[in-house]
Write a structure and sequence with these properties.
By secondary structure, this protein is α/β, with parallel strands linked by helices. The protein has two domains: about 130 residues, no CATH class; about 190 residues, Spore Coat Polysaccharide Biosynthesis Protein SpsA, Chain A (Alpha-Beta Complex). About 50% of the residues lie in helices and about 15% in strands. The protein has 14 helices and twelve strands. Strands 3-2-1-4-8-6-9 form a seven-stranded mixed beta sheet, with helices on both faces. The chain has a three-stranded mixed beta sheet with strand order 5-10-7. Helix 3 links the parallel strand 2 and strand 3. Helix 11 crosses helix 14 and helix 12 packs across helix 13. The model has no long low-confidence stretch (mean pLDDT about 95).
Length: about 400
């Protein structure tokens, strides 16, 4: 038997083996991915600086600030930076300032060369803050009244210097439903959180910029956002940097305490993930290509085999029984993860479309990066160096 014949003959078993692995990780993560409200109360309640960068966020900023002002945590300062907005963002924040003097509006300085806009805004916010803990929030987040209390409890119980919280991601349009859940599904199925918690390796980190709680001293010791000033995925970069510098990170479940609606239309979803996907792989073309090709094979090939077999066309290398088992395992994995992350479970039945659409966005992300035409919030992203290995 040649090597190629061996690969073909074992292909179905390899695919089933992969599905078994990610199912196992997903099941263990049910226990490792702990909700922030399940942690015991912390004895410390230091000043927390809520830092919110805002660029043209008139539709979001009011709801975000209102939810922050409704927190039961006793020691807060709330800093919002207006990042050269051309809408009513600053005006809305000034109204809240009149109601509560904990709210501070900062006029953002012009963007320096070599910086991305959000990174520059976050750095300015941190430098003007006073808190022992720094909580970076996106303007589209909404907090339940005890969210910060629970996050601080988690932070001190886990003895970390960076806590990132996964919110409940709100998806309303079909573009959001079919595309957006993919990135959290992908993380949940391949990142064994219990192992990541113990070994603290930079490539086993995941952070989400919608909610990131830092130890102030450590934030500045690792260089703050200035150290990753032109990295398109600042949240992932900050998590990796924390661990590389010898500090601890953790990811917790905030889906009952924090909500976020990232996008409001198909075009916003496509543009948002086009900015992030290739950057998340550190512009490594070989790994990037392999991952999305493999996902297409895993979640589409069994369906194609079933279609051919039911049409009377026999596929010798992939028995129909194994194709049926692979399809069943796929539905189980997608349904299990969606239920845990509070996405509508019925969306699991559309997993082939979710994989396909995200693969197309991945191709678009590579194309825009290659051309140097990626943009975000009306600003051009710097063209990075693509690595082939």
């Amino acid at each position: 038997m040649t090597i190629w014949q061996y690969i073909v003959s074992t292909h179905a078993d390899g695919l089933l083996g992969y599905l078994a692995i990610i199912l196992t990780i997903s099941v263990f993560n049910l226990f490792w991915f702990r909700r922030i409200e399940h942690y015991p109360p912390a004895s410390q309640k230091p000043l927390v600086s809520i830092l919110i960068p805002a660029r043209n966020e008139e539709g979001n900023i009011g709801g975000c600030v209102s939810s922050v002002l409704g927190q039961d945590y006793p020691h807060l300062e709330i800093l919002i930076l207006d990042d050269q907005s051309t809408d009513r963002t600053a005006e809305i924040v000034r109204r809240y300032r009149q109601q509560d003097d904990r709210v501070v509006l900062i006029e953002g300085k012009p963007l320096p060369t070599g910086w991305l806009g959000k990174h520059w805004a976050c750095q300015q916010l941190a430098e003007q803050s006073r808190g022992e803990l720094l909580l970076f929030l996106d303007a589209d987040t909404r907090l339940h009244p005890q969210a910060i209390t629970h996050a601080v409890n988690t932070f001190f119980h886990e003895r970390v210097q960076l806590l990132s919280v996964v919110p409940r991601e709100i998806v309303k349009t079909w573009g959001e439903r079919l595309i957006q859940p993919f990135f959290l599904w992908a993380v949940y199925t391949v990142l064994p959180l219990g192992i990541a918690r113990k070994v603290q390796l930079d490539w086993l980190t995941f952070t989400i910029g919608q909610f990131m709680l830092f130890d102030r001293r450590v934030y500045f010791e690792i260089g703050g956002h200035a150290a990753i000033r032109n990295d398109a995925v600042d949240d992932l970069a900050m998590g990796r940097r924390i661990v590389k510098k010898g500090f601890r990170w953790w990811l917790a479940d905030g889906s009952d305490q924090v909500e976020c609606r990232m996008y409001h239309s198909l075009s916003q979803v496509i543009n948002g993930f086009s900015k992030n996907y290739f950057a998340a792989f550190r512009y490594n073309l070989l790994t990037y290509s392999f991952v999305f090709t493999w996902l297409m094979v895993v979640f589409w090939e069994p369906l194609v085999v079933l279609f051919f077999s039911l049409s009377g066309i026999k596929v010798n290398y992939f028995p129909i029984e194994k194709a049926g088992l692979a399809t069943g395992l796929s539905l189980l994995i997608w349904g299990l993860v969606y239920a845990r992350l509070k996405f509508p479970v019925y969306l699991a039945f559309f997993y082939p479309l979710t994989v396909l659409f995200n693969t197309l966005i991945a191709i678009r992300s590579f194309y825009l990066t290659l051309r140097g035409t990626s943009t975000w919030k009306g600003r051009r992203l710097e063209k990075p160096k693509i690595r082939f290995f």
